[in-house]
Amino acid sequence: MDYNVNGEGYYGEFGGAYIPEILYANVKNLRERYLSIMSEEGFRTEFDALLRDYVGRPSPLYYASRLSEKYGARIYLKREDLNHTGAHKINNTVGQILLARRMGKSRIIAETGAGQHGVAAATVCALKGMKCIVYMGETDIARQRLNVQKMEMLGAEVRPVTSGNRTLKDATNEAIRDWCCNPSDTHYIIGSTVGPHPYPDMVARFQSVISAEIQKQLLQQEGRQRPDYLIACVGGGSNAAGTFYHYLDDAAVSLVAVEAAGLGVESGHTAATIHLGKRGIIHGSRTFVMQDAHGQITEPYSVSAGLDYPGIGPMHANLAATGRARIVAVTDDDALRAAMELTRLEGIIPAVETAHALGALDKMEFRREDVVVLTLSGRGDKDMETYVEYFNRTRSDEN
Length: 399
Ligand SMILES: *Cc1c(COP(=O)(O)O)cnc(C)c1O
What we know:
Elements: E1 10-11, E2 14-15, H1 24-39, H2 41-55, E3 61-63, H3 65-71, E4 74-79, H4 89-102, E5 107-112, H5 116-128, E6 131-137, H6 138-143, H7 145-153, E7 157-161, H8 168-181, E8 186-189, H9 199-207, H10 209-222, E9 229-233, H11 238-244, E10 254-262, H12 273-276, E11 278-282, E12 285-289, H13 314-321, E13 325-331, H14 332-346, H15 352-359, E14 371-376, H16 384-398
Parallel strand pairs: 4-14, 5-6, 5-8, 6-7, 9-10, 9-14, 10-13
Antiparallel strand pairs: 1-2, 3-4, 11-12
Bound molecules: pyridoxal-5'-phosphate (PLP).
């Protein structure tokens, strides 16, 4: 079975490009050119050099010995948190800025939830001297001040979005609206493996450097390229797509995608899209969408601003529907506990999104010799307020 995208932009029954007429020319142009641009030698050379010297790749594959002891397996952490700007998002924005320039675009727009993608987009725009506008929900602006300040210092304009829940979905709607008004000079840098074809495939390819490195690093450190388990959190799905990419068709490798359960899958306050979603269309692609009986998209909730999205990338919808990946839902509480555990066992403060992937360890059964690679998608600096508030609260509950 082939779990990658087909020529029409579908992963099984998911994906495609459901877009307004006004964007046809743009999306068509991108679809026709992305693969050839990405395979040009000049592009590859520039992309690889920036990943190495600017982003700091390869990111280490770190054997976490105390975490391994705790869970009874050989656990490695793929350290995307050590990248420039603190998460995996920069791999994709570096790729897309180079692509935008080769397509003759002068203006960049982006959406952001937690602000990590906004910062990564603003960073590459500063690097290449391009105009950058970032759409961000007001709720997220309030909970992610530091990232807003970084984007502004980098020269981006942050436009507050006041529709809906004022989070990632709403910011994405506004970015798409902007693109409709400015189709000729603007490239829209989508931050995850979502949106109309070719975005999910393009973003997965830029992020696939993660699994290409895992193969090499595991061979060196374990004497084999293939782990028993790959674990990653999923918001839209880009760090998971990058982690799984070169292993998609290798059935010997178990893929585990972890989504945010919020207060609990059945609580009504959740972002467990794959558990609860029904087939529908969101932001240009057919996938699982959280919706009510009338097909209205329901508002997601998670403690993590990077995971509260009511859709899921089409690659992951297909991995779930076909049973290729196991989908685990982790609550706010379990994620925050797992963040504290990693901090105390390994001296690494993870992003609250990543903490969900860590929270899945506890829900799995390993054999001692199993090799597990968990992608540490980002660092926790941006989440310190969330952590401090949570641990103060739990401490006072105990007293
Ligand atoms: C944005 C983000 C995520 C979620 O996005 P994906 O596209 O699903 O990877 C996860 N972790 C971190 C640190 C992020 O910044």
